[in-house]
Each structure stands twice: as C-alpha cells, then as structure tokens.
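Q: Got a minute? One more chain.
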Amino acid sequence: MSRWLGAKAKDVRARLGMPDSLPNVAGAVALLHTQPSDDLQIQCKDADTIIDLDLAAFETKRKTLATAQRAARADLDTNQKQRRAAAFEQSDIDQPHGLRALWQRVTGQAQTIGKQQRAQRLDELDELDREEQETLIQRQLYERRTLQAQAEPMRFRHALTQKTLNHAVGRSLQVDPMQPLILPVDEVAVSARLTIQQSPETILELISDKNEFFTRNDIVRRLGHYIEYPVALQQAVEQTLQSDELVLVTNDANPRYTTRTLQALSDKLREEVLAMDRNSCHGVASHHVDDAISHQNSQLQNRVGASLSDEQDQAIRHIVGAQQLSVVVGLAGAGKSTMLAAAHQAWTKQGCRVIGAAIAGKAADGLQTASGIDSRTLASWMYSWKNGKHTLNAGDVLVLDEAGMVGTHQMVEVVNHVTAAGAKLVLVGDPEQLQPINAGTPLRNMTRLVNTAELSEIRRQSSSWQRQASVQLARGHISAALAAYDTNGDVHRRDDQAQAIEALARDYLADERESGVRHRRLALAHRRVDVHKINQTIRSGKQQRGDFEEEHRVNTAHGLRSIAVGDRLLLTKNDRDLNVRNGMIGSVESIGDEITVPRQRRRC
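A: Always. Here it is, folded:
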C-alpha cells in the first residue's frame, strides 16, 4: 500500500490503522462488490467536471496575463517611439542660433556637429530603450513563473484524484500524473526578441544555423515568432530581404536564398576537400592491409561462418589508401563496423594513431565497441582541440562515423584541424538517412567531388524481406517498408495512443518476464513527451509486479520522479565535478542522501 501511494509506511498506518485490522485482498474485493456499481463512475464524472472547471479558470488567467503582457509591450513600444520623436524635436530647438550658427555653417562644421549630436543622442536612446525592454521582459517572465507556481497545487490535487480513481476503476497501466514531464522554458528565445525587433536582419543567422537554403516564407515564419503586429512584421521582412548578408540562389516562382557567410564556408570547404583529395601521403603498406583482411575473415568464419564481402574488401582498401580524405557511403546494417575494425588493424600495424568521432554519444560508443577505435563525440574532440588537448598529429587518422549528420560549419572546423595537423580524415555515413542538425549537407557534396566506396548490401538482417525493407527505410520509402512489416504480422494497431502505449508496455514487460532482465529490449518514440509516457507506463507495470523494494521521490530538472534501486538513469548534463557527460547511463545501486549510479557506456 505504501508503495502504491508513494507514502511512508508509518503515514499509511496512521491514516488506515495497523495491517491486522485491515481486510485481506479477497475481503476488500468482496466489500467493493457490495457497493453501488455506479458510484465510481459518478465520482469519475464529478472529478472530471471539477478538473475541467479548474483548468478553464487557469486558462482564463493565462489568457488575461498574455493579453496584458502583449498590451504592455505595445505601450512600451509606443512610448519609446514618442520619446524618440520628442527628443529629436527638442534637439532641433536646441541648435545654436545667431552668429554661432552662422559661423558653423560658414566653416562647414554645422553638418558634422549635427551628425555627431544626433548619433550620440541615438546611442543614449538605444541604451535607455534596451534597459526598459530588458526590465519589462524580466518582469513578465516573473509573472509567468508566478502563475505557473500557482498552478502546481491545482495539478497536484488533480493528479492525486486521477491516480486514486484510475486504480479504483481498474485502469492498470497508467502514466503517473504526479510525475509530469516539465520541459524547460527557452528564456534565450525571449531575450532574442529584443535583438530581432531592433535588427530584423539578424534572423538570418538563426535561420541559416539550421537551413542552408530558405525562402521568403521561411523568413516570414521565423520573424513571426518574435514580431506580433502585421505592419511591423511586414517592415521587418522587407528590411531583412534588403540585407547584404542575403544571397539569392534561385530566382523562380519561389526564390531560394542563402547567406553570404554560409556560401563562403561552402566554397572554402570545397577547395579544402579537393586539396585533400590531391594529397597522397597517407597510404598503408599492402601487406598490413592483406593481413588485416585475412584476420577479419578468420574471425568472421569462427563467429558466424561468413567472410568479408567484395564491397567490404574494396571499402577497406579504399579508406587505407594514400588520399588524405576517404569517404564511405553505407546503409545501416551493411557492415561498416566490420570494415572499420579491419582498417583499424591495418592503420595500427602501420604505426598510425586512430581516433573515432560521432555526433551522438551512443554512436561513438557503438563505433568503439564494434571497431576497437578509441571514440568520443565530435563535440568533445573539438572542445579538446580548442583548448590544446588531444590534438591531431601528422599521420593520425580521424574516423568520423554518421558523417551525414555533420553540418557545414562543423565540417569546416574538422577539415581545418585535420589539414593543419597533416592527419587523414575518413568519413563514414549515408547522406540519404538522418540529415544534419545544422545547415548544409557536406557529406553529400563531398561524394560528388571525390571517389567514394559504397556498402549497399544489408548484412544485419537474415530475412530477405527485412533486408529489402531496411533499404526502403534508408531511401525514404517508408510506406513500402511498413507494408512489408505489416504483411509479415509485425505491425499492431490500436484505436488510440493510450491503448497503443499500454499494449507496448505489456509486450515489453512480458518479454522481460520471459527472457529475463539481462536480455536487451528497446521501446522507441520520436517525441520526448511520448518517451515519458512509455517510460511511466512500463514503470507502473513493474511497480505492480513488485520489482521495486522502496521508491524515493526526487526533484529533477524535468519534474518529480520516483527512483528505486535498479532503475536505469540517463544523465542529461555534463558535470566535471562528478566526471559525467551528457548521454551517459547507469543503474541505481543505492539511494540515501545521495543516489549512487556507476557510470556505464551508453547502450540500448
């Protein structure tokens, strides 16, 4: 009972009495059956009505606050414009008269002095405007936080009511409403509003951070997040389109643009890539390559009774070749890790230091586990390089896995560091799969500039239809791939999301019960809110099963969480004092004043 309620045992005894005085399960069920059957349904409806009224009242408060804050911003904007106009009217009145004014006009000083005075006054007004706007923003953020804080007791009451009724009416696997997912407020975006309203063309920097090419509609959409009034928005769009930073790429019915900065980076990267392709000083002796391939074939024969395919053999010889830049395009499951393991052995025999990198920590861990190459996230390597640590040297090899996810800005930095050090760069990925988070598609562009090895034969799946479906997924033919899984009975439908999540959780728990907790299984979702629901639903099943001896409520950056010994936690922030990195996971060993979680490499 204490575990179900999330309360201490002594508190439960204080409220309900000693265990000996309470009915057993059978007695409690019999007692419930004697109650009017409609009572619980009436209570559910009453609770829903109360919750709806509370939410409606809160929504009214929220809308009222939003309207008042919008009006305050408009009033401030109007007052600042009026003050600016009055200031310049006053400056005209304060201009010198008589002989002094005549002398300034005769000597040509009048215009210069006037410009200097106007510029000085503009600076003073800009500074005053910024201070007032910043004060208003901070006050409005405080008002929002205050309203949010007022909502917490209401949410707690609703959560407790819903949890009690859910259990009462037999809703077994449910998300715990007392453990909501709280996503952080993007206060940086709120502060950016000032800059964009004063200099709308700065929106180009935000747009081009994620998109190499964009349209006028993209500019309007992004500016609309920061400028509410139609007239001001139209003026901001026109000002942005006149920016010197904007470059017209195609002038058709729907013109596309890029920025001058991004275009210059792309041109620079192209020149560097061609220069690296002409550099032929990084070859590995042929006998080292042959030995590595022979060793890898022997291992495959012993392990799975197979050997390297022809395209894997060719890819190995390609990346250990003399060029400073080597590119391999391979589908997921096509044997890239096996190829890299053989290449790693050949480079090591040649005396080369080999390091690996990937955008995600999980991918970096996978690269190291599968190929033996010492690997970290690309961001971690770049941070070290900027601080003069773990820098590349002549003859070193940098293997960049999932290179299709690297944007132009980051790729330029990598190429610059590699060429300055005289090292070799090996890019492995598929430009048709996950696209870069940041602007640009440098891997795709590189495949058009240099010779590229290709791995297209899927080796991870044993069934031919699964291999074909993997190719379809990689090439974006999602419907065809799902149809193949559906035909083979591997797609299960439910009427709504709640039913789908509960069915997924039951299958997960059933597999865990049959196969054991040491066997790995994975539940996936795209959005964080859905991941949270799946986690909570699976956890509710484990609670009912009695998997947790004692749970502790812990406040996290994303809300209140119940944690027990054996839970696996994902760390979402770097902390040098604890020597942990974002993306690390571990299982809880003990909980006291502190939670003890041994660090582990991130694995599914």
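A: The longest helix spans residues 109-168.
Q: Perfect, thanks.
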